Amino acid sequence: MDPRIQQMDDRLLLLNLYLTQAIALVLGFLGLYFFYLRQGVSFTSLFSLGENGYSTLGWALLLAALIIVIEVCLVYSLPATYFDDGGINKKLFSNRTVGHIIVMTAIVAFCEELLFRLVLQDQIGLFWTSVIFAFVHIRYISKWVMFTTVFLVSLSFGWLYIYTGSVIAPMVSHFVVDLILALFIRFDLLKDKK
């Protein structure tokens, strides 16, 4: 773990997480207002599961499972240095309760998908939204595998949004991916990878 990360105040790290999500939420709701609500689109129609609700959730869970399997395979098949974020994720999740991790990952999934899928993707397209999504995860920029993975995950969430027509699908998929990977960190399930 990077000594700077190790010395970082836990409350400051959490404040940073929640502040960035609050910014995404505010930008997302501003985008909703200007691009949808002012045009007469109903709020509830933006957050519906669509005609095939169970199918939409099924696709979301299937994509989440695929992403998790691929990420775990990458962690086990590539050198550990490719996934070293300086210890931020470990510090963020290691001492949290499962309930707090659920809340954190739900907030992140909702705020990020609201902004990136529902607002940005509909305005600038899937590719550029995924580029911005990857760059927003700034701590991964110097780690090409992590950066590329985040970009491809964003593309897959965007594809899911297009395919299902529901922003709920990428929100659910994002939540499940983040939750499972955070729990892997919390319970040190990948500790044998050295």
Structural class: mainly alpha
Shape descriptor reads globular
Number of domains: 1
Task: Count every helix, treating DSSP H or I runs of 4 or more residues as helices.
Answer: 9
Q: What proportion of the residues form beta strands (DSSP E)?
A: under 5%
Please summarize the sheet with the most strands.
Answer: none
Please compute the radius of gyration using only Cα atoms: 17 Å
Low-confidence stretches: none
Tell me the total number of β-strands: 0
Query: What is the helix content?
Result: over 70%
Whole-number average pLDDT?
A: 91
User: First CA to last CA: what distance?
Assistant: 14 Å
H-E order: HHHHHHHHH
Give a structural overview.
- With 194 residues, the chain is an all-alpha fold.
- The chain has one domain.
- 74% of the residues lie in helices and 0% in strands.
- The chain has helices at 3-7, 10-35, 43-46, 53-77, 88-93, 98-124, 126-136, 144-164, 168-186.
- α6 packs antiparallel against α9 (168-186).
- The two termini are 14 Å apart.
Structural descriptors:
mainly alpha, 194 residues
Topology:
Blueprint (H helix, E strand, L loop, with lengths): L2 H5 L2 H26 L7 H4 L6 H25 L10 H6 L4 H27 L1 H11 L7 H21 L3 H19 L8
Helix pairs in contact: 2-6, 4-8, 4-9, 6-7, 6-9, 7-8, 8-9
